[in-house]
């Protein structure tokens, strides 16, 4: 097993003993999905991309759960939404969300969680500064993919104006909060 796929993460060690088993692993993933679904509903309805706590929560989950379990949470979240469970922003669901202007943001969740979790395991979770860097890198993936896909619907200028600029002030503030929490979680391990 490679280091990036190990289960040596705060959430794993807090909630699952070494003999944890599949049931505890599934419970951990379901809890992550519920937290992400809840954060998706904390929304300011901007158009075409609402301001939510999804991206910050994705990064938090990645850093707390690690790359493997964080990816499992995101895959389960996306699958739940595709299957019609209203977990996306504004209690929306359906495969149509993966073919609309927010598609890039949703798809970006998976590599963002993996990247931020990987960086956390590689030592970026040790202090606030490096945690903030890891969180920023993770969320950058979400915004890069989100703006890229949104530009296909609205043009590049509008995609940047409506899909990135409104978040330039709020996102760093939310990521500072993540950076303050993550080192404490990793020290508990």
From TrEMBL:
Top-level taxon in the UniProt lineage: Bacteria
One GO cellular component term: plasma membrane
Compartments in which it is found: Cell membrane
Chief place where the protein resides: membrane
One example GO MF annotation: biotin transmembrane transporter activity
Membrane topology per record: Multi-pass membrane protein
Bilayer-crossing regions: 21-40, 46-65, 72-91, 103-120, 132-155, 167-186
Keywords: Cell membrane, Membrane, Transmembrane, Transmembrane helix, Transport
Classification via Pfam families: BioY
Family: Belongs to the BioY family.
Protein name: Biotin transporter
Organism: Aquicella siphonis
